[in-house]
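A note on notation is needed here, since sequence and fold are reported together in a single record. The reader may check this reading against the record printed directly beneath this paragraph.
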Amino acid sequence: MEKKRYTPVKRALSYDVHELEISDNVTINGKVIELLEVKNKDKCKYFSGKLSDGINSARFVSFELNLRPSIEKLHHDKSPIALSGCRVQQNIKTNPVITIDELQTTSVNQHVSVIGKIIRIEAPVEVNTKAGKKLQKQDCFIRDSDSTCRIVLWESNVGILEKNKSYKLVKFLVWPYDGVKYLSLCDSSTFEAISGIEEISDDDDTQYFEEPQPAVSVVCGEIIAVLSTTDYVSCVSCTGTVHSINGILGQFTHCNATIKLKSCNSSKSARIVVASGTKKWHHTAYNEELEVIIKDEQGESLEEKLLNIDTITIHYNTKNNVIKQVEKHQ
């Protein structure tokens, strides 16, 4: 008897807007903050809009005109929406040349171009991957007239940039590490040496080598709304999210590796609105900070505990509104 082959079914993954990566057949969660009228281009009708999760926003385009009335109602009611069967892709019409200051507000996994001068090159180091493979890595620092950022080079790309030379970096990928964005090469990346940028100093001044740290701001107020709460699992070796495939296995969002869910860390997050007077702020709390917020609070659910808090002081990262530290007032 011929053995039947089992073909695993690839299930759609679900993301909040700030988690988006280039992929197919995903569900995107957020709120519609902009909805445009139907347009007709080359005899093809479509509508577009903008979706946000309070941290990041992304533009969407749909050719399913019958969906627009439902989306318009959710937009009017300011209700959450889950768009399923989506293809996430980069806007291929643009590959923007940005300043390094703008890098920190640019979406992850986006291709950008940057013009600046290499003001520091560190010696290559050997790093071990989780798979046990050894790779060569080199950090370089590029500066324009205002700011500095890090460029990470791997393997055969180590040594391709020269100190004190000016370059135009084209289609470099934006990646985050510990809340700070940096640039990395991909298959489509190119670079070209350009004439020296005179206003950028060549001096070995350590102020140029310091990566921009995410600014931390403080707000004191009352939690007036809980937009959403999420239970999820994260990788044991980093903060990346793992999406469940079948209740036993999960898929790691950063590298698409498959992992046993029982080996992952259980995590929680909550998106809240804090108000003080007429001002309102949207924030996200994760794990330890969330536990500190709800400690000793009354309520059966996470939402009840959060809304029972009187006054709270929040220290948060202004780049992504993620809570870094909390102080509760009795």
